[in-house]
Amino acid sequence: MSSFNHQFLYSIIIIALGYLLKRTNFIKERDGEGLSRIIFNLTLPALILVSFHDITLDTSLVLLIIIGLVYGLIMGAVGIFIFRKQEQTTKGMLTMMVPGFNIGLFAYPLVEGIWGSKGIQYFGMFDMGNAFIVFGLIYVIGAYYSDSSSSLDVRTISRQMTQSIPFMTFIVTIFISLASIPLPEALIETANIISVANMPLSLLLLGIYLNFTFEKGYLKLIMQYMAVRYLIGIVAGAGLFILLPFNDMFKYTVLIGLILPSSMSALPYAVEFNYDRRFVGTVTNMTIIISFLLMWLIANFVI
């Protein structure tokens, strides 16, 4: 138990450091864009390569992909129903943020610190299903309800997915592993060195993007959104935790996976589709705080 608490404490310190650096103007929030590109295009793919190059798939791992995908589709439908009476752009903005999780930036550094590469493998499989939601469904919802002229064709959606280096690294690495194709030892060792930077950089970036201010007019919509996202996530996660007959790591992945923060992809989509980017940023920040507290409670009272 103490190792879990130590990991959360170290994470809080690094996040707080990132926030402090921003508040004291040593780092600007816009600097986070460059750091984000380093994480998603270098350190995170390196971590995925190290964790998945020798993976052996079993039923539980494949089921995590299905859960991540199916749950996202269900939540998309729930969001459309719950927010159906909202004005069109508000409905699109809220519904777009209901499905999809922030796994790469938020979950991986905590999971790596607590469970190591085994945890990354389980959450990575869940993330694979989640990727189809983040780069497919969320984009479709955002484009459909927006006033912009963004294209909704299959080519555009496919490009969204293939341009994600972490997602393509998942696909290629798992294919190589299943085909029993050996990778050069130098490549694995180099990736291992680079992957070490993923956890601190990701936590620093969370701190840089953290923001505690929001307009009071947002409060009602925020409360509705949080109720939809977390009440369903907690009930569904607890139900699958109890009912599914797999190992503890699988159960923890599902339980924690369904209460993770909203996807960071909502921010660039909000810009592309002319939604209220300040609202989207506020909600995304709040889900990070709520999910962090929920993970700490699960780590102390369930795991």
Q: For the CA atoms, what is the radius of gyration?
A: 19 Å
Helix amount, in percent? over 70%
Number of individual domains: 1
Low-confidence stretches: none
Walk me through what this model shows.
With about 300 residues, the protein is mainly alpha-helical. It has a single domain (about 1-295), classed as Up-down Bundle (Na+/H+ antiporter like fold), CATH 1.20.1530. Helix content is about 75%, strand content about 0%. The chain is built from 13 helices and no strands. The protein has helices at about 1-25, 30-50, 60-80, 90-95, 105-145, 155-160, 165-180, 185-195, 200-210, 220-245, 250-255, 265-270, 275-300. Helix 4 runs antiparallel to helix 5. The longest helix is centred in the middle third of the chain and has 43 residues, at about 105-145. The mean pLDDT is about 90.
